[in-house]
Sequence to fold (205 residues):
Amino acid sequence: MTQRPGRGGVSVSTRNPAGFRLSDRQLTDRAKGEVHARYPHNGIGVVNRYLSDIAEGCSSICVERNPWDKAVSAFYFWMHQRRTQINDANALFLSFCRTRLKFFSDFHLYSEGGEIAVDRVLRYESLDSDLAQVLDDFGLGDVSLDDKRLNFGIRKSKQFDVFYGENWDGEAVDLVADLFRREIDAFGYQLPTAEEPGAVRQTAS
Fold:
């Protein structure tokens, strides 16, 4: 998501981290074939490398989510897309973590050289208030997300023990931790609960 000056105010795009409605050909020409221009999730590195002149004066914004919560959501999304019936959620989730979950880490999209490279990272767990703050900073009106989140309603269970064990001793706990180590280290995420899906470590003030 990026914000940039526009006629009579500002314009906001959520198409991708670059956010600029460039033609595929224009990006292809600039990147000389090194970037798949039609890929909808090109990251901040593409902006900095090929679109820096256009990005000047813009703000780069993305959203991150507690990895253990994100993994369950990604699992339901994956199964829904393939219209696969979930008979044994624990076994299917474990298989998903072993084979597919690695494709759902987005850290590389908003970082460069292991460092966060965007202006703001909003938290999915507090997205309404975080977005409200961004819109207020940009001088935009109030926006309520309500049920407009992408893929809203696909996830059928908020009970983490089904996927990670009653005492968080299931194999999937460590699989998620290994795959999302960069996110956990960067944002201090901890094992979530149904009441606090975005749990983070408390830091000393």
Notes: The first helix runs from residue 24 to 31. The beta strands are 2-6, 9-13, 59-64, 111-112, 115-116, 120-123. The CA atoms of residues 125 and 198 lie 5 Å apart. The chain is about 40% helix and 10% strand.
